[in-house]
From TrEMBL:
<dbReference type="InterPro" id="IPR050272">
    <property type="entry name" value="Isochorismatase-like_hydrls"/>
</dbReference>
<keyword id="KW-0378">Hydrolase</keyword>
<feature type="domain" description="Isochorismatase-like">
    <location>
        <begin position="63"/>
        <end position="261"/>
    </location>
</feature>
<protein>
    <submittedName>
        <fullName>Isochorismatase family protein</fullName>
    </submittedName>
</protein>
<dbReference type="Pfam" id="PF00857">
    <property type="entry name" value="Isochorismatase"/>
</dbReference>
<dbReference type="GO" id="GO:0016787">
    <property type="term" value="F:hydrolase activity"/>
</dbReference>
<dbReference type="InterPro" id="IPR036380">
    <property type="entry name" value="Isochorismatase-like_sf"/>
</dbReference>
<dbReference type="InterPro" id="IPR000868">
    <property type="entry name" value="Isochorismatase-like_dom"/>
</dbReference>
Length: 275
């Protein structure tokens, strides 16, 4: 393809593919995979056996985004537990997050922790957000006291990462404190990603149907390459909520795969060469 064709949407590539978008943001679509980085000349390209379609990418521009793996969601005595929901269902994400972290460290990927961190005076929250989590007068809402302290408040036990993941955090990791379900809203997440050249985001955490999905969908809206790590996500909601997110991750927002598929990505034969 000539240089001018890099600006032509749906242009045919020299190796039988179809170009999506233009210039450095382009993808190449083939029958058996999608190449997310056809313009990359350096680095080690990997093929990931994802759904709905395998994709090829450069791990040096990927980041693992871990959302809300906090005591209030995943630990006994936390907010989920006190609300009468099954916090154990959220804990199902912990082993997958640990596996994803191990792979990310091996590939020297950025690791980004996104989590609720509300002001003690709750001036960062409006009525609609407060109502989302307090539907009756006697229900404990964000910022209200539980056995271990105020719910999802800066410096509280409930806002801290679960014990299993604390030792896996590293000083160079990026921390994004949020005050809505969407990890982009009112935070510097987008600026961090742009300045570090990160274009592909792999999502893990809880709840898959709330904070994970709203952040993943926003990433898709902003033209990041979005990948859901299915077994590194969980929710205390009914199973159909989990299934709906996986369906949309595959069919609308990007891709989904397991942590095993993430770990077992294999080298792509050569730049621009089909596997």
């Amino acid at each position: 393809m000539s240089q001018k064709d890099y600006r032509e949407i749906y242009a045919s590539t020299e190796d039988g593919g179809v170009q999506f978008a233009a210039s450095a943001d382009r993808w190449h679509l083939y029958e058996d995979h999608v190449h997310l980085a056809p313009h990359h000349r350096g680095g080690d390209l990997l093929r990931f056996e994802a759904n709905l379609k395998p994709f090829v990418d450069d791990p040096s521009r990927q980041a693992l985004v871990i959302i809300d793996m906090q005591n209030d969601f995943c630990s006994p005595g936390g907010w989920t537990d006190a609300s009468g929901l099954d916090y154990g269902r959220c804990r199902r994400a912990i082993p997958g997050v640990a596996r994803a972290l191990e792979v990310a460290r091996e590939r020297q990927m950025w690791v980004i922790w996104v989590y609720w961190h509300n002001r003690p005076d709750l001036r960062n929250l409006g009525a609609p957000t407060l109502y989302s989590f307090k539907h009756t007068p006697d229900q404990r809402g964000i910022g209200q006291e539980l056995e271990h302290g105020p719910v999802l408040t800066e410096g509280s036990w409930g806002a801290r990462m679960v014990d299993e993941l604390l030792p896996l955090m590293q000083e160079q990791d990026i921390h994004i404190e949020k005050v809505r379900m969407n990890g982009f809203f009112g935070t510097h997440l987008d600026q961090v990603l742009r300045t570090q050249g990160i274009e592909t985001l792999l999502f893990a955490g809880v709840n898959i149907d709330q904070c994970v999905t709203s952040t993943m969908e926003e990433a898709y809206f902003r033209d990041y390459n979005a990948v859901l790590l299915e077994d590194a996500c969980a929710t205390s909601s009914p199973d159909f909520c989990y299934d709906a997110v996986v369906f949309n991750a595959r069919n609308c927002w990007g891709f989904s795969m397991t942590t095993e598929q993430f770990a077992n990505a294999r080298p792509f034969a050569a730049q621009g060469e089909r596997p």
